[in-house]
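A quick aside before the break. I want you to see a complete sequence-to-structure record at least once, exactly as it would be stored in a machine-readable document. Don't worry about memorizing anything.
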Amino acid sequence: MSFVASISTPLAAPLAVSTAAKPFLPWVEQGTPESACKSQDPTVACRLVWNISKNTGFTRFYATWLDTPLSTLFWIIITFVVALIVKNIAHRMISKVTLRMAEGTMSERVRERSRTVFEGSPALLNKRRAQRAQTLGSVLRSIASVLIMGTAAFSILGSLGLNLAPILASASVIGVAVGFGAQNIVKDLLAGLFMLLEDQYGVGDIIDVGSAKGTVEAVTLRVTRMRDMNGIVWYVPNGEIKKVGNESQNWGRAVLDIPVDIHEDTEKVKEILQTTADEMASDAPWNDLILEEPSVWGVQALAGDAIVIRVVLKTAPGRQGDIARELRERVKRAFDEAGVTVATPAP
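That is the input. The structure line, written in C-alpha cells, reads:
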C-alpha cells in the first residue's frame, strides 16, 4: 500500500502543475477586472473586454482609449433609437385617434337626423370632421416630434459632457426674438388651434365674421377660407376674427315681419299667417326642415299706415333663407285670396 501511494503521488503532482502552467490560449493572464481596468468599479464594457481577452495589456488599452468614446457612442445610439421608437408609437397612436375621429360612426337614429338637418346627407359632416381631425393630428404629431426628439437631443448633448445652460439660454433668447418677429403668425395659429378644439365652426357652416359673411370652404390653423353669396372667396386670418356668428350650428330661426294695412283685422291676419305656416310645415320637403310648430308672435310694430306682424319658424341650420322665401310666397297668395292688403311700413 505504501509503495503504491509513494509512486502515485509524484506522478499526479507534475500533471497538476503542468495543467495550471499551460493555459489554453497563450495570451491569457491571471488577474481581476478591477486590476486590469484600474478601477474599483469597472464599466460593463471593460469587464466584458477582460472576460473575453483575459489580457491585462489589451484591457488597459481599451479602458484608457476606447472605453469612454465607445460607451458614449453606444448610449447615443440607444437614446436615438429609443426616441425614434417612442416617436413612431406616439404618431401611430395620434393617427389612430384622429382617424377614428375622422371616420367616426353614427347610430342610425343620428344618421337619419343628420340627413334631414344637414342638407340631406352626412357627407358634409364627414368632410368637416375629417378636416378637423387631420389638422389636429398634424399639430399633435408635430408637438410630439419636437418634445421627443428635443428631449433625446438634450440627453445626447448631456452625455457628451456639454454644458446645457448656455444652450438653453440661447434657445430662450431666439424663441423670444422669433415670437416678437412672428407674433401675428403665432396669434393666428393659437386662435386656429382653439377654434378647432372648441369646434366653433367647420366646413359647410354659414358664418359672419363682421368683415365677411359666407359659407366655410376650408379651415386651417392660420386662415379660414369662405365664399359669400356673390361667389367671392374670402381668406380671413384666424387671429383677426374677434367674434363669429354661426348660422349653421344645431338649428336656425326664420323670422318674418309681415306688414299689413293698419285698418286690417289683426286677429284675422294672425289666423291666416298661422294657417299658412302650419300648412307649409306639414308639406314635403319643408316638414323635414321645420323642426317645431310655427308661431305667430303678434304685432311687432306700428309703422305709419302699417301693422307689422311677426312669424317665426325653428329651422334646420342654414336653411332659414329658403324657408323664409317660400313662406313669403305662400303668405302673398293667402293674402290675395283673403283680400288682405300688404302695406309699406314707414321708414
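Two observations worth writing down. The beta strands are 206-208, 213-219, 223-227, 233-237, 245-246, 252-261, 295-303, 306-315. Residues 56-102 form the longest helix (47 residues). We'll return to this after the break.
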